[in-house]
Amino acid sequence: MNQPFHASVRHQPDWATIDLHGEINVAADQQLQAAYTEAESQSPSTIVLNFSEVSYINSTGIALIVGLMARARKAHRRLAVYGLSDYYVEIFQITRLSDFMQIYSDEASAVSQ
Amino acid sequence: MENNETIMTRIRQSLQRHPNGQASQEVALPAPQLPMVQTLDLDIAPNDPLTAYLVSVAGVVEVERLNLDSPALKQLKQNEVKLIVPLVSQGELIGLLNLGSRRSEQDYSTDDHRLLNTLATQAAPALRVAQLVQQQQVEARQRERIEHELRVARVIQETLLPKEVPSPPGWRMAAYWGPARVVSGDFYDFIVFPDGKLGIVEADVTDKGVPAALVMATSRTILRTVAEQYVLPGQVLEQANNLLCPTMPPNMFVTCLYALLDPASGLLRYANAGHTIPYQRTPGGMLELRARGMPLGLMPEMVYEEKETTLALGDNVVIYSDGMVEAHNPQGEMLGFPRLREMLNIPGCGDELVQCLLADLKDFTGPGWEQEDDVTFVTLERLLPSTIPYSLDVGEAREEGWETIAEFSVPSQLGNETHAMEQVAASVQSLGLSEVRMKRLKTAVAEATMNAMEHGNHYQADKPVLIVVDVSTSQLKVEITDYGGGNELPEPETPDLEAKLDGLQSPRGWGLFLIKNLVDEMRVHTDAVHHTLEIFFNLKGDQP
Fold it and tell me: What is the pTM for the complete model shown?
């Protein structure tokens, strides 16, 4: 039932995309931080989080995403997300994460801004 | 016999055979169907010389010939009694047959005298039997009244015992009260304090029956009052002793164990006023919970040693009165402490343990045992997590109109919030929640369970999270309970996202905020031990 988390990074000339898989909870912490560090390594102006394959996010997962947002904010990097289900869009709205991070339906629109 | 006028005299005679001063006995001969029968109420004082005279003579006595300084005789003469026939049984005057003048105004003949003597010989034993029957009836009525009063006393005494045994979460407690007679000098009591601690009293008044029961009532009130005022067991017994001393009847006293249990930590502090020594069953063997102290009510200004022990998970403590230990078998052997220790060394707890002990007692004493003394037990067991029932009483009665559709607990281990979430989701399948509301419910349950495991139970293995799913006609309610009671929790605040993004606040702290925003209603209850989060979803007009 539990889907272990893993993340992979795709580097593009202007941005990096982190493809997230499985459940984002406390167990995802290290891998998520490592993936973000990897995404930052080529100093892209935008980092895109792909939630298409994410099955579950809990409050600890929200905290981890807030942590990434704080890292991006400090480095003046743009953070965008796509692939969130309607339910998690609602969660991002309730938590106001969507006020500080644009939510897109797909990768193309996430990077076209 | 041609009696012109016969006076049957009813006499009252103080029956000296009753040293307890019972009222004088009134006896009457059945009134025969004779004309002109009168009764004469005649009191013959015990020291009236007439009594001694009548007992000493055998047969009919002519009143006019008597010359005694006797008020009774004077009265007889005034009432024109001519003959008296003493009815004597076993050397005791039990009645008089009094005759006035014959209607023919002739004297009584020798035949009359003979007839009267024969009558007296036969009437006396018959009258005696009648008197005894009447006396027994009176005594039976008195016995019945006393028995009735005792039954009432028993009911009153039962009301002085706790109506129910407390059941703090994670504990199973039981009590047994078995008087040897209708009423008892043994008692137990539980005092629940606002901070969740529990005062436990077991006491035994010397002797049994009514005198002990009367002292029991006073002692119970004093102990309860003092316990509410002085929390520490040593002080409680000291104060109770000082209050009991002035009113304690001679040759009576009260042995008493007072213990204060903190159900949250398992710490048990206790002091003992000469009561039997409780046992604590641990995996390492039986411990004796000894503490020195004189029985209550003997001497004022006594000091009571206070000790403490901690009950680990699975440990139990049995407090008992001496009625059990001092029971005898048909061979005259006493049950004794070694046998009791053996009896206690069984895995059961609560009512099962009490039933086992009583069965063992019955086995030992054999059938037809007349209980020698009052038998009382109080048992407390700190339950292992695996034995904690799912339906722990969290101090709130089920409200009317709610039906429980699921009830379970999960150990406080990371990851179990998912099990809780899935189990709740499975239990509400048939309620027809929309997909999005089902997702909100799942998130809310998982978040609440996670908070309960982390903040309430600190991930301690022996503290599970208890989850109850209730439905009413219009709402779904999920209660998530942990052991984080004792502190009123602050209202969930809206997290300051900007402060978090600027690194000024921890990025965490979203759980309660999320729950509040996902459910239709959220309530929080906190008592001394538990913390319960209730989440509500409206079922009618279910909208996304």
Answer: 0.49
